Amino acid sequence: MPTSHRSRALRRGSILLVGAISVCLTVPALADPGDRVQRNNERRSDLVLPDGIDNQRRARPPRSVEEVPRKDRTWLRASLTPRERARLLLEQMTIEEKADLMTSDIGPHAYYNAPIPRLGIPAMKMADATAGIGPRGWTVPGTGDRATAMPAGLALAASFDPELAKRYASVVTDEARRTGHNILLGPNADIIRQPWWGRESETMSEDPLLTSAITTPYVREVQSQNVIADMKHYIAYNQETNRANGQNTIVSERAIHETYLPPYEAAIRDARLGSVMCSFNKIGGTYACENDHALGDWLRDELNFDGFVISDFGAVHSTVPSVLAGTDVEAGTQAFYGPRLVQAVANGELSEADLDASVLRILRTMFRIGLFDTNYTVSPLPVRAHGAVARQVEERAITLLKNGSGANAALPLRANDLDSIAVIGGDANIAMAQSGAPYVKPTYSVSPLDGIRNLAEQRGISVDYAPGTDPVNGASMLGGFQAVPSAVLRPQEGNEAGLTAYFWKTTDRAPAPDVVRVERQVNYDVALLSASDGLRSSQVLPPPAANGQTAGAAVYRGTITPPTSGEYRFSLSGWGTARLEIGGKELIDMSGENGYRTLESQSIDLQAGRPYDIRVDYVADHPLAAIDQGALKLGWETPSGTVSPDIAAAAKMAHNSDAAIVVVTNYESEQRDRDDLVLPNNQNQLISEVLAANPNTIVVLQTGGPVEMPWLPDAPAVVQTYFGGQEVGSALANVLFGRVAPQGRLPLTYPASEDDVPVPSPLDGIADPDVSYDDGVFVGYRSYATTGTKPLFAFGHGLTYTRFRYGGLRLNSDNKARIRVSFTVRNVGSRAGVEVPQVYLGSLPTSVPTPARSLAGWARVQLRPGQTRRVTVTIDRRQLSYWSEEDEGWVTPAGSVRVFVGSSVADTALRGTARVN
Question: Which keywords annotate this record (predicted)?
Answer without folding.
Answer: Hydrolase, Signal
